[in-house]
Amino acid sequence: MNKIISQFLQERIDAGDFPSAVYLVAEKGEIVFQDAIGYAVVEPERIPATLDTIYDLASLTKPLVTGLLSAEQIEDCDIALTTKVGDELVGFDDSWVGDITVLELASHSSGLPAWRPLYLLARSVSPKDIADVISDLSQSSDVKKVEYSDLNFILLAHLVEGPRPDTEYSLGVVEKIGLSRTSFNPINHGFDKDEIAASEKGNGFERQTCIAKGYLMPEEKNPVATAPGSDKFRDYQIWGEVHDGNAHFMGGVSGHAGLFSTAEEVFKIALQFLPNYTTLLKPETCALFTTNFTKGLNEDRSFAFQLASTKDSTAGTLMSPQSFGHLGFTGTSLWIDPVKERIFILLTNRTHAHPLPFVNINSVRRHFHDLAITELDKKVSN
Q1: Which residues lie across from 31 on neighbouring strands?
Q2: Across the beta sheet with 332-337, what order do the strands follow?
Q3: Cβ of 355: how many Cβ atoms within 10 Å?
Q4: In DSSP terms, which residues pair with 237 in a beta bridge?
Q5: How far apart are CA 19 and CA 48, in angstroms?
Q6: Nearest residue to 112 (alpha-carbon basis) of 94, 103, 100, 123
Q7: Judging by beta carbons within 10 Å of its beta carbon (0-12, 13-18, 19+), is residue 178 exposed, middle or buried?
Q8: Which of the listed residues 124, 151, 171 is the one where a domain comes to its end?
Q9: Domain that holds residue 119
């Protein structure tokens, strides 16, 4: 552990930002600092967080699963950055979505809108019905720009992995690098609830979002556009199952959310993005993650990651501009500095035991990174 980092995160727990935090800071393939603070579960019981606590990684699924498997397929020439959605998936022949490329999906420059409640709009969870919803969408803007979108990675996962990325991931990543506490649907894989950090009670956040965007009337229990059995808003403590509504609708498995893991196993996956440590990719393939594919646009994006050169990124003030990272809505984050070969992981469960609105913890993330880098540099100078 590092006393200064741990104390800072304890202060944020005391302030009510999140009930628990597990962090890991590594350099040149070795863990330097790590600690677990607070309670992974507050309701209906109190369970302390440990270094082995499993967290809902939320959108870290995008780079850690879909981004990594896509890079493997690019390396194997199964797909290319220029491969179009319509080349690989049926249902997009008459839609502008069919012309979107793999690179546009992976860099969030496709023109797809940020989010849609597929659990309300799709007739079923079948790839065809989900494709029908997405293919009917209008472009979010006539101007080329970066717009972060879950739909990009839902499509990208279908394109490279099919509708069930968990099988491909288990065989292609989990087994190959020896992960034992990483999976989709952890309860179905033999983990007990008390090993997992809890999330929101019910789907209040998504329900409010659907009301605000006109998918639900404020006083209605049922959606305007329904699918069979579409009462998708849970009212119980979400604990051991994915928080994200669309991922839950898809059986807990999607390209944009659904992966659960520990800080140490996220670290093992993160090493696969660094050329000197990856065992799954060729070192030269790792250039995908540091290349700015959206130069001149409103945000700097590489393949599946945001770059630290983006204005107001959560990398903080001290990380190399070539650094790349990603956030998860549940309160998770991963940043990787390829210049100094440093990895920064912060897992929290900010959606648990907290009334709406949830706390925006981006300032916490930035300060965590600045503290961690300062402490690493102290060790080097000593």
Answers
A1: 26
A2: 47-48, 30-41, 20-27, 342-348, 332-337, 324-328, 306-307
A3: 7
A4: 201
A5: 10
A6: 100
A7: exposed
A8: 171
A9: 67-171
Three-class DSSP category at 319: coil
Per-residue pLDDT of the chain (382 residues; tens, 9 = 90+): 999 999 999 999 999 999 999 999 999 999 999 999 999 999 999 999 999 999 999 999 999 999 999 999 999 999 999 999 999 998 898 899 999 999 999 999 999 999 999 999 999 998 889 999 999 999 887 789 999 999 999 999 999 987 677 888 998 899 999 999 999 999 999 999 999 999 999 999 999 999 899 888 775 555 444 443 346 789 999 999 999 999 999 999 999 999 999 999 999 999 999 999 999 999 999 999 999 999 999 999 999 999 999 999 999 999 999 999 999 999 999 999 999 999 999 999 999 999 999 999 999 999 999 999 999 999 877 6
Burial class (CB in 10 A: 0-12, 13-18, 19+), 213: exposed
Report the alpha-carbon distance of residue 348 to residue 306 in Å, rounded: 20
Residue 102 structure tokens: 């793999």
- Domain assignment of residue 236, yes or no: no
323 and 358 belong to one structural domain: yes
Residue with token string 């809902």:
56
Whether residue 212 lies inside any domain: the answer is no
For tokens 């959108």, the residue is: 59
45 and 104 fall within a common domain: no
Question: d(Cα 270, Cα 177) in Å, to the nearest integer?
Answer: 11
114 and 149 housed in the same domain: yes
Residue linked to tokens 């990208």: 156
Query: Strand, helix or coil at 289?
Result: helix
> How much is the pTM?
0.95
Domain end: 112, 136, 171, which one?
Answer: 171
Which residues have a Cβ under 8 Å from the Cβ of 64 and sit 6 or more positions away? 57, 259, 261, 266, 269, 270, 334
Domain assignment present for 335: yes
Q: Is residue 368 part of a domain?
A: yes
The number of folded domains in the chain is 2
* Residue 35 shares a structural domain with residue 73: no
Q: DSSP assignment, residue 194?
A: G
